[in-house]
Amino acid sequence: MSKTTSLIIGILLAVISCGILIYAFETDRSFAQIIITFGILFLPIAFISSIDGKIAVFLLSSILIVGGYICYKQAWYDTGFGVALALFLGGATYILKVSKAETFSASDYKQEQKNKRNAR
């Protein structure tokens, strides 16, 4: 991705995120609910590809369903703004930045360096 495209995407993310927060502030929404919801949901959304296994998916889904039900029954509707921010920023992080990387192996590195020394 070119630098110009990255800058434009960053600016758009900032404008939309700040727009959501400004709207929430202007309509007297609970920032505590927004921040808590965002904090709980951001990492699972950003690293959704790292969640392996049926048990992890079951637990995450169950927590989201029960949490959504509790928020609805308690009339904590301001959590929707936190969900929107987490989906928006976590989704952008997942799509644009989080990628699988090869893990560093100390033994492979030592062997590679040894081979380089022996090749001299």
Question: What's the layout of helices and strands?
Answer:
Layout: H1 3-26, H2 31-46, H3 54-73, H4 79-96, H5 106-119
Helix pairs in contact: 1-4, 2-4
Structure description:
The protein is mostly helical. The protein has one domain. The chain has 5 helices and no strands. Helix 1 packs antiparallel against helix 4 and helix 2 packs parallel to helix 4.
Q: What does the overall shape look like?
A: elongated
The residue ranges in which pLDDT falls below 50 over 5 or more consecutive positions are none
Terminal CA distance: 39 Å
| Secondary-structure element order, N to C | HHHHH
What structural category do the secondary elements indicate?
A: mainly alpha
Quickly describe the structure.
The chain has 120 residues and is mainly alpha-helical. It is built from five helices and no strands. It has one domain.
Summarize this structure as a short list of keywords or feature phrases.
single chain, 120 residues, 77% helix, 0% strand, elongated
